[in-house]
Design a protein that fits this description.
Largest sheet: 3 strands, antiparallel
Mean pLDDT: 79
Number of strands: 3
Low-confidence stretches: none
């Protein structure tokens, strides 16, 4: 089914590529028939899985705007040269690109260290007050998160607490569940 959807997308010119339709169809067919080993641990809830998967939706490993060219022979994208402090174009074959990208994925049961030293999460709470005191600055309190109604109004421009006549709704009481329904 997934192969058919991908083939239909290619036939409808939704997928843009330098390959011929025959070559693309052959590539899709071989990838569809290939055995894929997807190692996903068992999640305790949908919320836990969505939190895990959401990290990759919000922030992919390489931003889309960095890719200059992608075809069957090469992948070109922009990287920052740390010595010259300039943006340069880097070219890899697809196999080399996957190898380089795989180096950034930790092995099973290994974790990445995102912050260390003064920025480590367990240290941050203890050291920030001292750092602000040394700098002679006052630490600002964390802003309170928006309530659900204000968040909906800010995001969608609609006040969820207005009824159909434009009147402000007010909390009256909660009703216990009705077992006869």
């Amino acid at each position: 089914m997934a192969f058919c959807q991908a083939a239909n997308a290619a036939n409808a010119n939704i997928v843009v590529t330098d390959m011929s339709k025959r070559t693309l169809r052959a590539l899709l067919k071989t990838q569809y028939e290939r055995w894929w080993n997807i190692n996903i641990q068992r999640f305790h809830s949908k919320k836990q899985f969505l939190g895990y998967a959401g990290r990759y939706v919000r922030r992919p490993p390489i931003a889309q705007h960095r890719f200059q060219r992608i075809d069957s022979r090469e992948i070109r994208f922009l990287t920052k040269d740390t010595r010259t402090k300039k943006t340069v174009e880097t070219t890899y074959s697809p196999a080399e690109f996957l190898t380089a990208l795989a180096d950034h994925i930790p092995d099973h049961y290994r974790h990445n260290i995102r912050y260390f030293g003064l920025l480590a999460p367990r240290i941050k709470g203890r050291t920030h007050d001292g750092i602000f005191a040394l700098l002679g600055q006052e630490r600002l309190a964390k802003p309170r998160p928006l309530g659900w109604a204000a968040s909906i109004k800010k995001s969608f421009g609609v006040d969820p607490l207005l009824d159909s006549k434009g009147q402000q709704m007010q909390w009256v009481r909660s009703l216990p569940p009705n077992p006869n329904r």
